[in-house]
Amino acid sequence: MKRSTTLSTLALASALALAGCAAGSGESTGAASEQTTPTAAAGAQTGTAAAGATTGAPSEEPVAAEHDDDDVMFAQMMIPHHAQAVQMSETLLAKDDIPTEVRQFAQKVIDAQGPEIERMNSMLEAWGASATPDDADTGHGGHGSGMMTEEDMAALEEAEGEEAARLYLEQMIEHHRGAIDMAREEVSSGGNPQAVELAQEIVDAQEAEIAEMDGMLQELPDQS
């Protein structure tokens, strides 16, 4: 029962978090942070400045007002994409008998993508944009680009030990490829310099992580 509602809860949590920010009140760490992952909630409580500092961006630098529809779509689509990667990593970390290097990698995904979610929420707030795209725009490809299905997430929840580690790495490689596709599109067509910079950071980091995950897969024992 919990598995069937996980993705919709994440999407709702992201929307509520942005709505709280837009209202300019303390509600951003209320209902939304209760429903999102612990990592994302912690990032929300520290505010946009702390998130910028975590990812190396100047903490006092305001989000540039200059933007286009591609910038908005990039943030709207990448937020739930990142949120699912965080969820996948937290699911793995809750398991026993996971190889140390895979466990460390999953924590690295959480540490990187939680603050990036906060950066993108801040961008949407600054641009006066909603947390989710219009229905007519969902064909842009974001949510479906490398996203795991409910069945995929259920399989990860049920797997244990080295089987779970292998499945996590295989799923995350596909997930990263989808994020890279979206980020490259933003790099080529985005108008906001900060969004374009973030997109390039995602491309660079996740290409390196795919190579890292390929190496870890090779080190796992053969399942035959």
Automatic annotation (TrEMBL):
Pfam families: DUF305. Keywords: Signal. Residues 23-63 are annotated as: Disordered. InterPro entries: DUF305_CopM-like, Ferritin-like. Residues 71-217 form the DUF305 domain. Residues 23-58 have a biased composition (Low complexity). This is DUF305 domain-containing protein.
